[in-house]
């Protein structure tokens, strides 16, 4: 069925107190949004209909959404306008206006005025897995039984009671899989809450790109020096296991 061309395209505006600027980090990646400041108020415009009803918008404190009609701002479903449109505002893209800054003290926090914690969130984008973290107690016999040509395509390292394997294709072993993003190893099905955070974190915590940053869903990570990884083979696996037993 052809779309009704008379359907009205809604022009959404919004305002929130300037004191709540920190919370806008959750929508900083929405490059279609424009932002302007007027005294103690932040104005935003350019929301799509989907964005206007999204959880990211609904959780913003003291956030007021308007529909622009004939130069007047109406609250949702209201028949009477709440305000006149603001003029002479200096608009900027939100991703340029909100400058992300690394805090000096706590490496697990990142954002405007140090109030936004680094978080991972579920992602619907499918990414190929390149790493596997397995409990050693569950895979000992399975690793030894794998064909040589499969083992030699992987590197590995022991992390306490687990083994981390990196390679394509991954070994067919039980465990937790990860995908690679700008030198980060993220759990499959997850991404950074702020997608443009990835290269900034690398510059801050992995300037020489000589490490893998292995992330947990809670926003914590483990640094793994790349040169500590070794080629996987049945003999290297056995020797490493014997060394662990002797220690």
Write a structural description.
- This protein is α+β, with helices and mostly antiparallel strands and 247 residues long.
- The protein has 2 domains: 11-99; 120-246, no CATH class.
- The chain is built from 7 helices and 17 strands.
- It has helices spanning 49-52, 55-58, 94-97, 136-145, 148-151, 197-205, 234-246, and strands at residues 11-17, 34-38, 41-47, 64-69, 72-75, 83-84, 92-93, 120-122, 131-135, 154-159, 162-167, 176-181, 184-187, 190-192, 211-215, 221-225, 230-231.
- An 8-stranded mixed beta sheet has the order 16-15-13-12-9-11-10-17. The protein has a 7-stranded antiparallel beta sheet with strand order 6-5-4-1-3-2-7.
- A hairpin with a 7-residue loop joins strand 5 and strand 6.
- Mean pLDDT is 82; it is low at 101-116.
Quickly describe the structure:
The chain has 247 residues and is an alpha+beta fold. It has helices spanning 49-52, 55-58, 94-97, 136-145, 148-151, 197-205, 234-246, and strands at residues 11-17, 34-38, 41-47, 64-69, 72-75, 83-84, 92-93, 120-122, 131-135, 154-159, 162-167, 176-181, 184-187, 190-192, 211-215, 221-225, 230-231. Strand 12 and strand 13 form a beta hairpin.
